[in-house]
Design goal:
alpha/beta, Rossmann fold, 5-stranded parallel beta sheet, 4-stranded parallel beta sheet
């Protein structure tokens, strides 16, 4: 079958088109109207992005994207409550695409008790109702997606919030470049000769182990792992260097790929510290000696921010194709629905 046949047979909800149109989410986020005047000129000592799954990963991505710019700590919180450090000088950005995420709603209560500065980012639900009732700012997201397929609107909305509050410089120039990049890449990544298709074919039959670099691409590694889980319905693992070299390097000496068929995917970038590059060389050589294939994925765009976004976009497509090649609907997440239904009883 060619890729069109796979899409017709297994992608009943047309996630193919959602991925192709991802640049439209960026355009929406960057032109969206919202009012944060109540928070202008506020003293902010730390930022906490609180959410789960696809609604939280934007915070991790911001940590990498803004690694050289953000002057206050940005923490990603995936829990029912906030860290003890949260106080009246903490900006809490509550991110729940549906507005019904129970952990995020619980964190909202904690943020109110601790008198934090709060912004709610959502499409509606209880989060929006409570926020408006208590006069907290609400930033609306583009509707109609599953949270993991709404990454672009979630991340670029977060970026624009930080810009609006004066916590970072104007990002419009780089955002426009990323929009154009994604328009171009959407055509190439969705074609029958797509790089992502070739990579997905290599991954078939193996458990992916993703290696990234801390503070540079570890958010993409985490996102990539989650997309394998939800889109492809595959187990996957991720770690980042240099930490990986201090523990997870050891099992590769004894690894048997016939018993545990792994494939390693190394996320690479030219901006890595020279010692990180050297570490990648050494660890990938050792992994290959154990009989495991190592695939390197690398973007060659001009700036780090463009490369980071393009890396994420490519890996999203890769996991989408892995779903199709296994005859699975990339949208289906039955066990998550089962868990939520049982938790609600």
């Amino acid at each position: 079958m060619n890729i069109t046949d796979y899409i017709k047979k297994y992608d009943a909800d047309n996630m193919y088109q959602v991925l192709k149109d991802s640049h439209k989410q960026i355009e929406f986020a960057w032109s969206n109207n919202f009012d944060l005047s109540s928070l202008k000129n506020s003293k902010i000592s730390q930022i906490i992005v609180s959410g789960m799954g696809g609604s939280a990963i934007a915070g991790n991505f911001a940590q990498n994207f803004l690694r050289d710019e953000l002057k206050v700590p940005l923490i990603v919180n995936r829990n029912y409550s906030l860290p003890a450090s949260a106080d009246e000088n903490t900006l809490v950005i509550l991110s729940s695409y549906s507005g019904e995420t129970e952990e995020t709603l619980s964190t909202f209560e904690d943020a109110i008790k601790k008198q934090c500065k709060v912004i709610c980012v959502t499409t509606g639900g209880t989060l929006q109702l409570v926020a408006r009732a208590k006069s907290f700012p609400v930033v609306s997201l583009m509707e109609g997606f599953q949270p993991r397929f709404a990454f672009a609107v979630s991340f670029f909305t977060l970026l624009r919030i930080l810009q609006t509050l004066g916590l970072i410089d104007d990002q419009t120039e780089i955002v426009n470049k990323i929009i154009e990049n994604w328009k171009d890449r959407s055509e190439r990544l969705s074609s029958d000769s797509s790089e992502a298709i070739k990579l997905a074919e290599k991954v078939m039959g193996f458990v992916p182990v993703i290696l990234s670099a801390a503070d540079y691409t570890d958010s993409v590694g985490l996102r990539f792992k989650g997309q394998f889980n939800e889109n492809s319905k595959m187990a996957a693992f991720c770690n980042s260097l240099p930490e990986q070299n201090h523990n997870e390097i050891v099992p590769w000496e004894y690894h048997n790929n016939e018993q545990n068929p792994f494939i390693v995917i190394a996320l690479m970038d030219n901006s890595y510290h020279p010692r990180i590059k050297k570490r990648f060389e050494i660890i990938t050589e050792l992994i290959r000696k154990s009989g495991v294939e190592v695939i390197e994925i690398k973007s060659r765009s001009e700036s780090f921010k463009e490369r980071l976004c393009n890396l994420l976009y490519c890996t999203d497509w890769l996991t989408y194709y892995c779903a199709l090649f296994q005859g699975r609907n990339p949208k289906e997440i039955n066990y998550i629905h089962h868990l939520k239904n049982n938790l609600s009883k």
